[in-house]
What does this fold into?
Amino acid sequence: MVAAISFFWAGMILAISFVEAPLKFRAPGITPALGLGIGKRVFTALNRIEIAFAIIVVATAALTRRSFDWPIGMLSIVIVMLVVQTIWLLPKLVRRADAVIAGENPPKGRLHVAFIAVESAKLILLIAAGVGQTIKG
It folds into this structure.
């Protein structure tokens, strides 16, 4: 179950963060404000789904009394990254998007790059954890 969740979670990150998000801004008629409005909704929804995945992983590990092995350790790191995204990165990016949507021109920062870096690390760790859980059986 943990392996399946890891792979499904990784697939969602790959599809949304690395396919949908960049392509959205290349679609005809999509303005930056419109793209950011869509992105706010999509990434907020993804975040909520990721929180559900994290809860399921923790509950499964607790209920099956799995020892703290390296795949579960990797998932623990992913959960810490998710917490950072949830309480720090995503709210700041949403506020910046709101400012752009309102017609303001906020200064560019590195938060978006940090978000992409965290998403990349989560993707790698989720795939590795899924492979590890699959190998362990």
